[in-house]
């Protein structure tokens, strides 16, 4: 199966959480915070949203930072993806 987002939606695959801090402390599973970084897997076509034209600013393969509690999680072929609106993406990591 393949996810194909509509309108201004973007499909993200969450990057792995850091298991150690910068100082080298190993974090147990419960202490790991949900990462806010993800890789763009698919991008919708954009178009008219709420009467305004939306041009997509991200592309497949970009690494991005997105809002912490945004999006909808979808599990497909044992992989969890997050579908967010483009305006929930805060920055592109370069």
TrEMBL record:
Record key words, sorted: Chaperone, Cytoplasm
GO molecular function, one term: protein folding chaperone
Highest taxon listed in the record's lineage: Bacteria
UniProt-listed Pfam families: Cpn10 (PF00166)
PROSITE patterns assigned to the protein according to its UniProt record, in alphabetical order: CHAPERONINS_CPN10
Assigned GO CC terms: cytoplasm
Binding partners and assembly: Heptamer of 7 subunits arranged in a ring. Interacts with the chaperonin GroEL.
NCBIfam families given in the database record: PRK00364.2-2 (NF001531), PRK00364.2-4 (NF001533)
Family: Belongs to the GroES chaperonin family.
Main function: Together with the chaperonin GroEL, plays an essential role in assisting protein folding. The GroEL-GroES system forms a nano-cage that allows encapsulation of the non-native substrate proteins and provides a physical environment optimized to promote and accelerate protein folding. GroES binds to the apical surface of the GroEL ring, thereby capping the opening of the GroEL channel.
Xref: PANTHER family: 10 KDA HEAT SHOCK PROTEIN (PTHR10772), CO-CHAPERONIN GROES (PTHR10772:SF58)
Entries under HAMAP family matching the protein: CH10
Protein's name according to its UniProt entry: Co-chaperonin GroES
Recorded name of the encoding gene: groES
């Amino acid at each position: 199966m393949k996810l194909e987002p509509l309108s201004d939606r973007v499909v993200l695959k969450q990057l792995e959480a850091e298991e150690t801090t910068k100082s080298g402390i190993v974090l147990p599973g419960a202490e790991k915070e949900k990462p806010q970084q993800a890789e763009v897997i698919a991008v919708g076509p954009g178009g008219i949203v709420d009467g305004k034209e939306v041009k997509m600013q991200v592309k497949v393969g970009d690494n991005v930072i997105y809002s912490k509690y945004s999006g909808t999680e979808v599990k497909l072929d044992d992989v969890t993806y997050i579908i967010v609106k483009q305006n929930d993406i805060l920055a592109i990591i370069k």
